[in-house]
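HUMAN: Spend a minute on the protein record below and explain its fold to me.
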Amino acid sequence: MSKQNIKKGDIVYVLAGDDRGKQGRVLSVQVSKNRAIVEGLNMVSKSTKPSAKYPQGGIIKIEAPIHISNLALLDPKSGKPTRIGRARNEEGKSIRISKKSGEEIK
């Protein structure tokens, strides 16, 4: 299995789909399915029964997963979409770097 380039908490840009051109923060990553849930994007309506969390029940809006291939990480320097590379730091650990600016992605 390859290493995922997108992690929880990253700010991403949507490349394809209904929300193309929008950006948001990654809430969770489903590594086995190659999908990520992005805050406020790819909203779907879901019917729910009354529960402790939703006492009224009814129709609620939640974020649906987006395939990782449709997301691009934002460059920390310019704020534009960029590809991700890997490099080693001084301690020898693998870090993510931006292909556009060469800066480390935290």
